[in-house]
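Quick one, probably user error.
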């Protein structure tokens, strides 16, 4: 290849690269602009359920930002079984209270994995009481595995009823859904009188959002 031909090819590649970079930057800017408008000006055509799903996605994105600046987020670390590395950041997120129920649930599972079962179950309870379907499913898995050593029958019945009627248990992003066969197994294992007692408690239930302030006042 002659030197003049090499120079021509070099110029061409540089030009192509510049065009691609400019187009990419423009598209990225438009995306950011659209995203900003979407956050500040909700689409009037959105239904209530769509608004809830959108806000959950935004919250999940916010929670997924690692506090340490590392590549792995605490949620990714926990999912990979690396709870020793995840637990500190999860604790910081969970302590923020309302809106951070996913972190509370993940922290609870990690605490259990690390041998701190009582504390882990307490964190799962806080997320479940706030209405997080994944945490309610974890409570039911505990009962499915350990029976009344995990929950009395009527408490399991309460969580089963609440989980089955939770409108967000099949929402996009839910990763801990309980299989129908598992729910059927749990229902069959609960005596009728205990089940009715649990259902009554579930019907009188209202969400409770944990905060460090409420925890301190109850100590």
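Nope, works fine. Designed sequence:
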């Amino acid at each position: 290849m002659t030197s003049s031909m090499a120079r021509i090819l070099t110029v061409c590649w540089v030009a192509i690269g510049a065009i691609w970079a400019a187009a990419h930057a423009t598209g990225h800017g438009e995306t950011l602009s659209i995203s900003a408008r979407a956050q500040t000006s909700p689409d009037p055509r959105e239904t209530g359920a769509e608004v809830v799903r959108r806000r959950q996605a935004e919250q999940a994105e916010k929670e997924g930002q690692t506090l340490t600046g590392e590549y792995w987020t605490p949620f990714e670390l926990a999912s990979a079984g690396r709870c020793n590395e995840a637990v500190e950041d999860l604790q910081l997120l969970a302590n923020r209270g309302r809106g951070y129920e996913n972190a509370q649930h993940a922290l609870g599972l990690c605490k259990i994995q690390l041998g701190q079962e009582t504390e882990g179950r307490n964190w799962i309870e806080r997320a479940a009481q706030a209405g997080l379907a994944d945490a309610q499913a974890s409570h039911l898995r505990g009962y499915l595995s350990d029976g009344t050593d995990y929950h009395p029958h009527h408490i399991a019945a309460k969580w089963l009823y609440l989980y089955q009627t939770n409108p967000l248990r099949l929402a996009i992003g839910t990763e801990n859904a309980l299989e129908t066969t598992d729910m059927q197994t749990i229902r069959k294992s609960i005596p009728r009188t205990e089940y009715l007692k649990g259902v009554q408690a579930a019907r009188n239930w209202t969400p409770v959002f944990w905060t460090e302030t409420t925890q301190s006042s109850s100590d």
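The chain has a mean pLDDT of 78.
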